[in-house]
Amino acid sequence: EKEGFEHFMLKEIYEQPKAVADTISPRIKDGNVVLDELEMTEEDIKKISRIQMVACGSAYHVCMCGKYILEQMAKIPVDVDLASEFRYRQPILGDNTLVIVISQSGETADSLAALREAKKLGHKVLAIVNVVGSSIAREADSVLYTWAGPEISVATTKAYSTQLAAIYLIALLFGRTREVINQEDYKKYVAELGRLPEKIQRILDEKERIQWLANKFSHAKDVFFIGRGLDYAISMEGSLKLKEISYIHSEAYAAGELKHGTISLIENGVLVIGVATQPELFEKEISNLVEVRSRGASVLGLTLYGNYAMEDIADFTIYVPKTEDYFTTSLAVIPLQLLAYYISVARGLDVDKPRNLAKSVTVE
Ligand code: F6R
């Protein structure tokens, strides 16, 4: 069933344009985002005073993106918790807090327990789930399904991308309903959503360059992914992908936090991957990269076409197409998935079934 691909992971990476299109397009009607499955009236959406997002692993990284996107697009304050923390920390959620649980499998024990905790506290739970009819889908008040199809590889790729797509849809619907996005911007965003699959495809078509970089860095011992804002959230996912299938130690850091301790680990031979897609933070990120480079790190930059200033500082640069600032994660994550994949292949590891890991974590 790998359909000619060497591994499920690569097949699933290549399925992303279709998975993202399948998740978005049925929900755009006459140029508007329509999410009947939320079963929320305009009134319900206007009443939300806070959003609490909960998940594990990569789905948690989607929540981190969700915080930046929902707060900025819908102007609703968002808190994010790891499900394993949320369930035991006796959370205090104010009135009219909407809880969003994200899970590919819909069976993750901690995420299910977090959902139950939120319901016990009397809050509405919206689940973003891939597996139809799974426990989380059944117990949530409403479900927004991601249409990624079955994901076999332990390391998630296409589910992650469709979860992000679901967040964009929710942010647009909430922002428009609450009248904090004007009609012109709304139309521009909706149109751009439709172009994401083709832009993802363009990155996939350039996979040879990532493969070349992966071979170059396959013996790395320590890798730091740094970014600010949404780029920090992408860094978290890039780092997890790399460590889980290549067994290379890696960490994601908010770039501005490096100098509060971690920069002491930067020395010759360390690889720093600098993610810089957000225009307002670009200069700041570049100055962080100058700092690590002057301490001997090799720098791999990841930015948008047009930001050629990256080449002044980075040893190598990966470019992705331009899109709306809120949607860049969907593009920037693709080379990071490919990088992790090809490094794992270069190291001769079991890409689809990394050691010690299970696809669905149904125990604590
Ligand atoms: C990483 C990965 C895991 C899952 C996590 C949550 O590639 O796949 O971190 O994201 O175990 O799983 P779900 O989404 O099924 O709740």
UniProtKB/TrEMBL annotation:
What is catalysed by this protein?
A: D-fructose 6-phosphate + L-glutamine = D-glucosamine 6-phosphate + L-glutamate
Locate the transmembrane regions by residue number.
none
Sorted keywords for this record are:
Aminotransferase, Cytoplasm, Glutamine amidotransferase, Repeat, Transferase
Q: Which residues form the SIS domain?
A: 41-180, 213-354
Q: Is Repeat there in the keyword field?
A: yes
Reading the lineage from the top rank, the first entry is Bacteria
- The protein depicted here goes by the name Glutamine--fructose-6-phosphate aminotransferase [isomerizing]
The organism's lineage is:
Bacteria, Bacillati, Bacillota, Clostridia, Lachnospirales
Q: Which residues of the full protein are shown?
A: 249 to 612 of 612
